[in-house]
């Protein structure tokens, strides 16, 4: 298997979260129906669909950015300062730990990072890293996997590679913001695609033309959208079925006035989905439901659930404000619920750990505030309504 399957990410020292971030990608519960999962061994499955739900401003987007940051390092082998890390600006030092499956072995890396105070520019660098690898035959159950995740604390004595103990010749080659993970994952073929910054910036991206099957899903009235010629910078042309006119423009900002936001987002989402389904990998989407009808969201979720289509075990990780979306998911150990505690820090918990009853509809559990902190409080709603009422009658 030449693709990486991430099993867990830990990240510490992000002050909006309570304690360390602990994010599992594997199925914690028993897998009876393999739909929406990918088998790594007899009893270990990766979840192909993972959602993050919670109220506004609870940390969902930040969590997605952290996951993307780590994936860019582990999968895409990017340097720390190659990645957009502005969300880490207030932090002087942090560490992260990633456990993943690649080339029939389980790997675990612990990395320590700090801000480089010797440079005029804002940069971060590694201070040390520990890496270990374990044969697939030694991790035969979820119990063994959790021992690797929780009990095996990496240090100089139990790691295969320690950054600070590398030969001087290797240290000269390895830049201070390059991870030693490249020694393991350089040849992987996984993809990481994201729609995190697209929430407020919705641009139409077209290489040559938008397939009619994609257009018809979002707008049956469009005849075609395509480039004027083979040049990727050439004007885009638009024609509606009920018109003989062809609109041509090179202005990327005008498309929101010509076609719906859903059609624009749907095109990008379809393009990225196809890429990760073809090659295996990860698609991270912030506010999946934004601009899209609920049934269209289900169409995309079902692509990752379908084992015939998703034969390479691609994974979609998305945030949503609308709990109704998670009713499309047949598991609860792949739904993360974010809630603020009394200190106004966010807790990250699996829905399967919060609710044991299978007869409860997932959206009802969250919308009813059955799990406290998943819906606006009665008091907050009342005070807001009273404020509006008082302003109206001033």
What is this entry, summarized?
This protein is of the alpha+beta class and 394 residues long.
Q: Explain this structure to me?
A:
It is a single chain. The chain has two domains: 303 residues, 3-Layer(aba) Sandwich (Rossmann fold), CATH 3.40.50; 50 residues, no CATH class. 36% of the residues are buried. It contains eleven helices and 17 strands. The model has no long low-confidence stretch (mean pLDDT 91). Strands 2-1-6-7-8-9 form a six-stranded antiparallel beta sheet, with helices on one face. It has a six-stranded mixed beta sheet with strand order 10-14-15-5-16-17, with helices on both faces. A three-stranded antiparallel beta sheet has the order 11-12-13. With 394 residues, it is an alpha+beta fold.
Which properties best describe this structure?
single chain, 394 residues, alpha+beta, Rossmann fold, 17 strands
Strand content: 25-35%
Give the CATH topology of the largest domain. Rossmann fold
Average pLDDT number: 91
Which strand order does the major sheet show? 2-1-6-7-8-9
Instruction: Report Rg.
Output: 23 Å
Just name the CATH architecture of the largest domain.
3-Layer(aba) Sandwich
């Amino acid at each position: 298997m030449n693709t990486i399957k991430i099993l867990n990410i830990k990240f510490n020292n992000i002050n909006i979260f309570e304690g360390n971030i602990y994010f599992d990608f594997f199925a914690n519960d028993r897998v009876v129906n393999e739909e929406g999962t990918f088998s790594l061994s007899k009893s270990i499955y990766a979840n192909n669909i993972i959602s993050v739900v919670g109220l506004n401003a609870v940390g969902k987007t930040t969590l997605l950015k952290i996951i993307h940051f780590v994936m860019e390092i582990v999968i895409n082998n990017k340097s720390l300062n190659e990645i957009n890390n502005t969300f880490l600006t207030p932090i002087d030092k942090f560490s992260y730990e990633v456990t993943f499956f690649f080339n029939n072995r389980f790997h675990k890396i612990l990395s320590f990072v700090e801000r480089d105070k010797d440079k005029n520019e804002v940069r971060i660098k590694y201070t040390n890293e520990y890496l270990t690898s374990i044969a697939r035959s030694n991790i035969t159950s979820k119990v063994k996997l959790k021992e690797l995740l929780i009990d095996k604390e990496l240090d100089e004595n139990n790691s295969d590679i320690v950054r600070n103990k590398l030969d001087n010749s290797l240290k000269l080659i390895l830049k201070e913001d390059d991870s030693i993970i490249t020694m393991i994952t350089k040849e992987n073929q996984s993809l990481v695609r994201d729609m995190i910054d697209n929430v407020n910036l919705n641009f139409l991206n077209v290489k040559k033309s938008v397939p009619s099957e994609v257009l018809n899903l979002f707008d049956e009235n469009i005849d075609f959208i395509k480039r004027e010629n083979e040049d990727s910078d050439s004007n885009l042309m638009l024609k509606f079925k009920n018109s003989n006119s062809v609109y041509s423009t090179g202005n990327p900002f005008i498309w929101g006035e010509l076609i719906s936001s859903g059609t624009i987002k749907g095109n990008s989402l379809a393009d990225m989905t196809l890429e990760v389904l073809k090659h295996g990998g990860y698609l991270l989407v912030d506010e999946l439901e934004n601009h899209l009808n609920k049934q269209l969201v289900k169409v995309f979720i079902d692509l990752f659930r379908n084992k015939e289509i998703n034969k390479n075990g691609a994974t979609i990780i998305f945030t949503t404000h609308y709990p109704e979306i998670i009713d499309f998911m047949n598991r609860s150990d792949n739904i993360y619920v974010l809630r603020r505690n009394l200190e106004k820090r966010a807790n990250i918990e699996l829905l399967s750990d919060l609710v044991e009853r299978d007869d409860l509809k997932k959206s009802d559990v969250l919308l009813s505030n059955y799990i406290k902190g998943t819906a606006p409080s009665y008091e907050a709603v009342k005070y807001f309504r009273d404020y509006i009422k008082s302003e109206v009658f001033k």
